[in-house]
Predict the 3D structure of the following.
Amino acid sequence: MWEIEVLDALQNIHTPWLDKIMVAITSLGNAGILWIVMAAVLLIIPKTRKAGLCMAIALILDLLITNCLLKNLVARTRPYDVANFTDLIVKKPKDYSFPSGHTAASFAAVTALFMRKEKLLGSIACVVAVFIAFSRMYLYVHFPTDILGGIVVGVASGVAAGFILRAIDKKLAARAAGTDIENQ
């Protein structure tokens, strides 16, 4: 299986210091905590409130699609179980493999930022998201197609959140315009 070959090849680049870095990077994505905290901070700041709301919506959509639907529907076995890989340097995840939840949440957050025109923050977040996604393969807990699936779900969730927020903005603007006309 080509995916196991990719994961096995990644084992050749392991070093003690890179292992520590990858474990730290992957932990940023645990339970989406980095992205949840970032959304909360953005919600607090008036200038970035809509970006924070877009991220929050994207993360909720991603949670529903990835964790509540797809992981249980696909029920894909983790690569370390498929390959009888016993050298894990992280705790074994207890859920299914497809799609990567760490990756999906990361790309949902990134896409939401870009949907709200937060280019600098979105670019920085994208670099972090790529590293989180790569770390999942490096650590042998996800197949490459799990990562691709996570990217697709994450981007779709972020785009959907952007459209939802735009629709809400339009309704609020139309309502405000209608109210202003009635009051004149």
